[in-house]
Known about the structure:
IolE/XylAMocC-like
Amino acid sequence: MNVSTSLNVFDAGISRPEAVRRCAAAGFVSLDMNYWDFQKQVLQISPQEEEAWAKEIRASADAHGVRFTQMHGPVHGPNFSKLVLDLTLESYEALVERSLRTAAILGVPWVVFHPTNVTGEEGESYRDVLDFNVRFHRKWIPVLEETGVGIALENLTDRRHIRSYFSLPEELAELIDTLNHPLIGACWDTGHGHRQSVDQTTGISILGSRLKATHIQDNDGVGDHHILPYQGTIRWTDVVQTLKRIGYEGDFTYETHNSIRNLPDGIRDAGLKYAYDLGNYVISL
């Protein structure tokens, strides 16, 4: 298990090849490509231009001796009826396929997606939402088998007074088991679990061998802060020891941009080095 970081520690004003170089200089050998940050730009270019962009990023990773072991895929919105960026379900599906093919160029084994409610309305049936998500994510199996790229479905959190299904590990496990494919697994977001009041040991244990990716972030149990370990109230010994006990084979992947991206650029590299050293301490617990 390596300490990894999302490239979203740099805003879009820093090119992704340069972001790769700076993360590598801080010590990281594993990285997460945040496709979500660029989905607006991707929608404005051709698939051929996207392929060239991905190859440029991959060349930088190869040159600096790092691997992309995760990617955050595009995000449709808070639910499947309230889509962002003027997306339709059809155009979002096209974006999903593009992202999976970009992941293949980058050498990414697991792309993270958000399973969500369908309407976002109070009283929506869990079974209806489960059935919709099974049908939706099952569509990608031919592309997964063609590219060898897997998808990891992430635990989210309830929205205000409305249940957000799959925020509980039991629900996420049921979705993955119903899909029943070796290239479909889970991503555990520690911060989302904490906000949902899910014990980390319990959540990770329930997912067990389904767990293929992580989003490591801390918070106070109320806000979705995306900060480094020990800046919030998560018990990190529980997280790490449970990951080891279940035989988790992925990386300890930071999604802690608010601890790094908000720093002045002149000190950001030192912040990255601190984050890397801190992560190695945490995974030694």
